[in-house]
Specification:
The complex is a heterodimer of chains A (120) and B (398).
Chain A lengths: L6 E7 L2 E10 L1 H16 L4 E5 L3 E4 L1 H16 L3 E5 L3 H9 L7 E3 L2 H11 L2
Parallel strand pairs in A: 2-3, 2-4, 3-5, 5-6
Antiparallel strand pairs in A: 1-2
Helix pairs in contact in A: 1-2
Chain B lengths: L1 H19 L5 H16 L4 E5 L8 E6 L11 H6 L12 H6 L3 E7 L2 E8 L10 H59 L6 H15 L4 H13 L9 H4 L7 H8 L1 H10 L8 H6 L21 H15 L11 H10 L7 H16 L8 H4 L5 H21 L1
Antiparallel strand pairs in B: 1-2, 1-4, 3-4
Helix pairs in contact in B: 1-2, 1-5, 2-5, 6-7, 6-12, 6-14, 14-16
The structure holds fe (ii) ion (2 copies).
Chain lengths: 120, 398
């Protein structure tokens, strides 16, 4: 059992990396998230799904890091999807005008199906 | 929509508060502050530049992007002329425009200019609104306060360190001076070479065994060093005489402890009673010592320690008129003179020190190695244990 207040784990489903940030998305944890996504991008994966099911809070620092992930993936020509984001966080993204830059899905299934459909 | 934006801004100010007051180290704090700013305005690039002291150079302390930009390229003129903590769009600055800086905010706390914050364009490519700049101004002031607090704290820490160094230096000079004095005394009397240093050392060991504070221990160390300083006034002829003293010569010799007292009374020591301890190092418990013929109750513990340390070193050193004694004989002699000359509590403590030395329980064994090189320590050990048991019984009865 880990005592870390925030951890990032991930798993692969074919050519898609699903990343699970847990807890409080802020400074240190944001860095973990960026690194974890960067690791997959470096391995040549261009589709990343971030599952927010276990993320309690995304504050301004967290948003800064998510933009970071997005920028990195954009330069690599990849796609970033968010799933299971809480309503309050979705509202924030909408208010900030960010919804058009990310793909939002209710769950992993929907995200994977959509990503698969994208594949020619 | 407006309400949600306002709430987001309020929560960003909350994040800022959390970060500025967190226990994180300064660099982590700066990184977090930068991310609060980036996240609040959705900026992809940003930097915080800061100078710790008014005279020092400004440098980047946190940044994301802008890595090719150097502070030297930025014209500080317009920045200083701008409103305090008021963000603006820099115009006509090639370095800033080239790097993609959209907004620059000079950081001020009270009347001190301490740095600036740079922000690149928004992720959404939307322009910064008047509201954004107003919000950024508030955040900038918070950052300025954090930086200033750090600078103040740093300054105080630096001064403390400076004072500590000065104090250390003073102590060092002080000790060097004492050593020089002791060397002068010991040089005068060929047979008592390093006597003062050893008496100081033995006295410290006994005082520590008796549970003295480090401050008081330092005092007795100094007393040990200076106890015979009065001998500087006694003529070499008498000091180095190889035959027994005449009554007059003896009288002259005995002046030294009072002379020591008079000399060191001129010095203002940070330790209590150094001069008194020195004055009484030839007093005896039975009241037959000099110069004041004090008795047991009138003598301080410090004087009793110094007396024993002094006698022990005298016995175990070679003198002009006799050979040196070995430790066993010296201990027997000390025991013989108990109650007349020496205090049993002090002798007990001294025996414990020697015992610990033999057991290797002292960090720097320093007494026996000096006098008993190559002798059979087990014999001394047995003797010490007997003495310790006997004296422990004595002090319980007392
Ligand atoms: Fe003396
Ligand atoms: Fe002496």
């Amino acid at each position: 059992m880990t005592t870390s207040p925030f951890q990032v784990t991930s798993r692969l489903v074919k050519d898609v990396a699903i990343v699970y940030p847990r807890g409080y998305l802020n400074n240190l944890s944001g860095e973990y998230l960026v690194n974890e996504c960067g690791r997959h991008a470096q391995a040549g994966l261009k589709k990343i799904v971030v599952n927010f099911h276990e993320t309690d809070l995304i504050n301004s620092i967290g948003i800064s890091f998510l933009l970071n992930v997005m920028e990195d993936l954009q330069t690599a020509g990849g796609t970033l999807c968010f799933t299971e984001m809480k309503k309050v966080h979705l509202d924030t993204f909408e208010m900030l005008g960010l919804t058009k830059y990310f793909l939002f899905f209710p769950d992993e299934e929907a995200a994977l199906t959509a990503l698969d459909a994208r594949k020619r | 929509m407006e309400l949600r934006k306002a709430l987001y801004n309020i929560s960003a100010l909350g994040d800022l508060g959390v970060e500025t007051t967190s226990e994180k180290n300064f660099q982590e704090k700066l990184d977090s502050l930068l991310h609060v700013v980036l996240g609040t305005f959705l900026a992809g690039k940003g930097a915080i530049a800061y100078r710790e002291k008014p005279a020092s150079e400004i440098s980047f302390v946190a940044r994301k992007g802008f890595h090719d930009l150097s502070v030297g390229d930025i014209d500080l003129g317009p920045l200083l002329a701008a409103g305090r903590n008021r963000p603006y769009h820099p115009a006509g600055n090639e370095a800033l425009a080239g790097a993609g800086v959209e907004v620059i905010t000079p950081l001020w706390e009270r009347n001190d200019f301490i740095g600036f914050v740079l922000l690149g364009k928004k992720f959404t490519a939307e322009p910064y609104t008047g509201e954004d700049l107003e919000m950024l101004g508030m955040i900038a002031h918070q950052i300025a306060i954090t930086l200033k607090n750090h600078a103040l704290f740093h300054h105080v820490t630096e001064q403390l360190e400076e004072n500590r160094k000065l104090y250390e230096e003073m102590r060092r000079i002080y000790h060097d001076t004492l050593q020089a004095f002791a060397a002068a005394i010991d040089a005068k009397d060929l047979y008592t070479k390093h006597h003062s240093q050893r008496v100081a050392k033995y006295s410290v060991a006994i005082a520590r065994e008796l549970g003295w504070s480090e401050h008081d221990i330092e005092g007795i160390y100094v007393a040990g060093f200076l106890h015979d300083v009065g001998k500087l006034v006694i003529s070499n002829e008498i000091l180095n005489k190889k035959t027994p003293f005449t009554p007059d010569e003896m009288k002259e010799m005995r002046r030294h402890s009072l002379l020591s007292y008079k000399i060191i009374s001129q010095i203002k020591f940070p330790w209590k009673d150094v001069e008194k301890i020195v004055k009484h190092h030839h007093e005896r418990l039975d009241g037959t010592g000099y110069p004041d013929a004090l008795s047991r109750e009138d003598l301080s513990e410090g004087a009793k320690i110094l007396t024993l340390a002094d006698s022990f070193d005298a016995m175990t050193s070679e003198r002009a008129y006799r050979k040196k004694m070995d430790v066993r004989k010296a201990l027997a002699e000390l025991k013989n003179c108990l109650h007349k000359q020496f205090d049993d509590r002090i002798l007990l403590a001294f025996c414990k020190v020697l015992d610990k030395e033999i057991r290797g329980e002292l960090p720097e064994p320093d007494i026996l190695p000096h006098i008993e090189r190559g002798s059979d320590l087990s014999v001394i050990s047995a003797l010490l244990e007997g003495l310790i048991e006997e004296l422990s019984g004595d002090s319980r009865e007392a």
